[in-house]
Amino acid sequence: MNLDSFEQLAQRRKTVKVLAQDSLPTADCRAVVQRVIAAAGWAPFHKICSADHRVEEQFSGIEPWRFHAIDADACRNLRSHVVHREAAGKIPAMLASADAMIMATWLPNLPAGGLGTASDNESFEPTLGNVEHIAAASAAVQSLLLAATAAGFETYWSSGGVLRSRELFDLLNIPTQQRLLGAIFLFPGNVTKSDKVEIAESKLRAERRPASQWSRWVEVKQ
Ligand SMILES: Cc1cc2nc3c(=O)[nH]c(=O)nc-3n(C[C@H](O)[C@H](O)[C@H](O)COP(=O)(O)O)c2cc1C
What we know:
This protein is of the alpha+beta class. It has helices spanning 3-12, 30-40, 72-82, 91-95, 128-150, 166-171; strands at residues 16-20, 65-71, 100-106, 154-158, 179-187, 197-201. Helix content is 30%, strand content 17%.
């Protein structure tokens, strides 16, 4: 890897949503997705997550993020759970085509006294510790996107929509004290557009500005 190849990879990553009316055939991508997840785990993190999140062996990692991976077959099954829900939006059409979807969560430091007011799956205290946990988990998600792009998937970081709900957390067995950072869709890289398959990209991408409009060199006098 050199800077040229990293620049190519960083630019190749882009939002692609594959929206299928009917379920596409599934392929077993678990092995490669597992590698993508492991690569993402090299993201930096500043503080270990609170022990409140490490009560189960499966979730004993000190990292302030958790990735819940849903393979293609499970995506199709999940689709049938969300398709009739109000405000399901485009999520069912993406679950019909994804090779995998990863519910990426970050782990808030919990207020003294346990889970606090976490009943809505969303609340957390606005502390530096939590900002750094979000930052670290976001770094892991970006690494996930880059690794998935390198592996040949199309990717989409979704806020999650209907997948943010308490009911869906329960269905996927995600502890409700975890906070959803994104539902990360990995789509096959070779899907072609048709009457029944739409491929959408992001409108904001074209609005990107050169680095000179969001970065600067700072002069410091002796
Ligand atoms: C935290 C986060 C949440 C996002 N959620 C959504 C979303 O819910 N819907 C959507 O269309 N795009 C979502 N995006 C994707 C952005 O819209 C997209 O990255 C941006 O428009 C730039 O396009 P590009 O990824 O193709 O470069 C999200 C991105 C981030 C970082």
